[in-house]
Amino acid sequence: MKTITEPARDVPIYGEYDVAILGGGPAGIAAAVAAARAGRETLLVERYGFLGGMGTAAGVTNFCGLHANVHGEMRRVVQGIASDLLARIDRLGGLNAPHLILGKVLAQAYDTAAYKIAADELLAAHNVNLLFHALGAGVLMHDEARIDALFVETRAGRQAVRAGVFIDCSGDGDLAAWAGAPCEVGDNAGHMLYPSMMFRLNGIDPDKAGDAWRTIPLLMDEAEAKGTHTFPRKGAIVRPQKSGIEWRVNFTQLKRADGRAINGLEPDDLTRGEIDGRRQAIAAFNFLRTVPGFEKSYIVDLPPQLGIRETRRVLGGYQLSGADVLGCASFQDSIGVNGWPMEMHMAGEVIFKFPPIPESRGYNELPYRMLVPEGIDNLLVAGRCASMTHEGQSAARVSGACFAMGEAAGTAAALALSGNTRPRDIEVEKLQDALRGQGAFIGRDQAVPQAL
Ligand SMILES: Cc1cc2nc3c(=O)[nH]c(=O)nc-3n(C[C@H](O)[C@H](O)[C@H](O)COP(=O)(O)OP(=O)(O)OC[C@H]3O[C@@H](n4cnc5c(N)ncnc54)[C@H](O)[C@@H]3O)c2cc1C
Question: Is the CB of 55 under 6 A from ligand 1?
Answer without folding.
Answer: yes
